[in-house]
Amino acid sequence: MSDLESWADAVARDLGVDPDVVDVAGILDLARDAAHQVERPAAPLTTFVAGYAAATAAARGEDPLDAVDEALGRASELALGWSAAPVVPLGDDGGDQPASRADDEDGDGNDGDPHDDGSGTTVPDDAPDED
Fold this sequence. Notes:
The protein is mostly helical. It has two domains: 3-80, no CATH class; 85-131, no CATH class. The protein has four helices and two strands, in the order ααααββ. The chain has helices at 3-14, 24-37, 42-59, 64-80, and strands at residues 87-89, 96-98. A two-stranded antiparallel sheet has the order 1-2. A hairpin with a 6-residue loop joins β1 (87-89) and β2.
């Protein structure tokens, strides 16, 4: 048994979880998928949510091993299909732009916020008006 497997066994037992339902390889695969497809902090968040979903399903009477497999599989599919730049449809021409530009009505990079000059930096309240 590797040190990681020993750790997984110890933490599972200490937290009252059957160590047989802890799929170390599946959890690590999910963490990898979430970290690479979404962003690094998504790894622990996603594995926690998948574990919680599996526990909830098991509490409803589903087989714990099946619940873990289902949660890990679904979360991994979601991570692998994740797009870092969600798009929202704009106008009738079917054109799409990143969601961050959805409020930019005239395309000048400024969403109408008086503190946003479109450059990605914030303009202080006491800055001279360039209009």
